[in-house]
Design a protein that fits this description.
Layout (H helix, E strand, L loop, with lengths): L4 E6 L15 H15 L4 E6 L17 H25 L4 E5 L8 E2 L2 H9 L3 E5 L9 H12 L3 E6 L4 E2 L11 E2 L1 E2 L1 H6 L7 H9 L4 E5 L5 H7 L5 E3 L1
Helix pairs in contact: 1-2, 1-7, 4-6
């Protein structure tokens, strides 16, 4: 039996053309949305936290020299653009969907209200959480941990570009070994690049397991939502 309510963290790269690495590629967004919609139809409650790195990232070369808080607010706005693109793709794939933002943009999305988000899920709607936490200096990984704790999710699902958590960065170290499961403390002490320390600590304190998996492999999103052993389990 898969977990009942999950928060799926999609980085901005989930929307980008794999060749280019930035912007929004409709076919990429459509593929991701169709897989989410198909598993959502099985009755799982799904919340999604989107990143904005395909458009703008606060800690990027584009933001060099910029005030950090200002750059982070620009990044939050980028997540709203991705959320609207994903909502469109999900609705075309047959799922009812709502976007809630941590910064008020009422013409395009609902403000984030915890109980309303839970109610949407109970009514069979996917909820996309945009705008990060609404505060600068926090990542969208931390947003995923925070929203998961707030709505009582069973799992945080972190979609990445690699197959799971490795003992060293597989993009830098050839032959790095992937771990099937790892503890929160190992992630922090060994500086394994899963999520930032704030997000990991929040998951640990709220006993929220994290599953890290490769979004590029078809079937992985559905498998992770169902609670199958894809990628790496952090617990």
């Amino acid at each position: 039996m898969g977990s009942n309510r999950v928060v799926l963290k999609l980085s901005g790269e989930a929307f980008a053309d794999p060749e280019v690495g930035y912007g929004i590629d409709t076919s990429t967004a459509t593929r991701v949305a169709e897989e989410i919609a198909s598993v959502h139809a099985e009755g799982h409650e799904i919340g999604i936290v989107v990143g904005g790195g395909n458009i703008f990232r606060g800690l990027s070369s584009a933001a060099a020299g910029m005030d950090r808080a200002n750059a982070d607010y620009m990044g939050m706005l980028a997540t709203v653009i991705n959320a609207l693109a994903l909502r469109d793709a999900l609705e075309r794939a047959g799922s009812q969907c709502r976007v809630q933002t941590a910064i008020n943009i009422q013409q395009v999305a609902e403000p984030y209200i915890r109980l309303r988000a839970i109610r949407h899920m109970e009514k069979g709607r996917i909820v996309i959480f945009a705008g990060g936490t609404g505060n600068p200096f926090f990542t969208t990984d931390t947003t995923a941990a925070l929203r998961a704790a707030e709505i009582g999710a069973d799992f945080v699902l972190k979609a990445t570009r690699v197959d799971g958590v490795y003992e060293a960065d597989p993009e830098l170290v050839e032959g790095a070994v992937m771990l099937d499961d790892v503890t929160y403390m190992d992630v922090i002490s060994k500086r394994l690049r899963v999520m930032d320390t704030t997000a990991i600590t929040m998951c640990m304190e709220n006993d929220l397991p994290i599953r890290v998996f490769n979004i590029a492999r078809p079937g992985n999103i559905a498998g992770a939502v169902r609670g199958e052993a894809v990628g790496t389990l952090v617990h």
